[in-house]
Amino acid sequence: MRTKIKLKDSYTYPDIVGVCGELKLEDDHFDTLLNPLLIIEVLSPSTEAYDRGEKFQHYRKIDTLQEYMMISQNRVFVERYLRQTDDSWVLTETHDLNSSIRLISINCTLVIADVYKRVTFDEQPPAPQNGTSE
C-alpha cells in the first residue's frame, strides 16, 4: 500500500506495512496510508543502498512509525530498528534461521525460518586460504 511521508510530502511503496487499529488514509481513494506502525523492506541489490539510507531517513519522519525492518533476499540477515521514546532507533539483527524477532508495534513474533521458508540461496565456493587457490 502506498504510504505518505507528510513532512516530506512524498510517497513510497513499502514491501509490507503494518497497522493496528484504525487506518488513516489520505483521501477517499483508500490507497494511501498515513499511519503505519511497521514498515518492512526486502532488500535487493538495486534498492539496498536507498532502503538503508535515504528511504529510512524519510520513514523516520513518519510520527506513527515504531519499527522498520530490512530483510536480505541474498542471505539470512534481518535487521529491525525500534523507535525509542526519545526518537532514537535501536537495532536488533540476526543471521540465525532458528531465531525470532518480536515486533512490538503489531504484537507479533516473526520466526526467521518462516521468512526464508521457500528461499534457496546461491552457494558461493569457499574463499581460497592464505591467498592461494586450489
Give a concise summary:
This protein is mainly beta and 134 residues long. It is built from 3 helices and 10 strands.
What does this protein structure show overall?
The chain has one domain (2-131). It has three helices and ten strands; from the N terminus they run βββββααβββββα. The chain has helices at residues 48-52, 54-59, 112-115, and strands at 2-5, 10-12, 16-18, 32-33, 38-43, 67-72, 78-83, 89-94, 100-103, 108-111.
From the N-terminal CA to the C-terminal CA, the straight-line distance is: 50 Å
Strand order of the largest sheet: 3-5-6-7-8
The parts where pLDDT drops under 50 for at least 5 residues are none
The total number of structural domains is 1
**Strand residues, percent:** 25-35%
Helix/strand-derived category reads: mainly beta
Shape: globular
**Average pLDDT score:** 85
Number of strands: 10
- What is the H/E order? EEEEEHHEEEEEH
Largest sheet: 5 strands, mixed
Radius of gyration equals 17 Å
Number of helices: 3
* Share of helix, binned: 10-25%
Secondary structure blueprint with pairings:
Elements: E1 2-5, E2 10-12, E3 16-18, E4 32-33, E5 38-43, H1 48-52, H2 54-59, E6 67-72, E7 78-83, E8 89-94, E9 100-103, E10 108-111, H3 112-115
Parallel strand pairs: 1-4, 5-6
Antiparallel strand pairs: 1-2, 3-5, 6-7, 7-8, 9-10
Give a quick set of tags describing it.
3-stranded mixed sheet; 33% strand
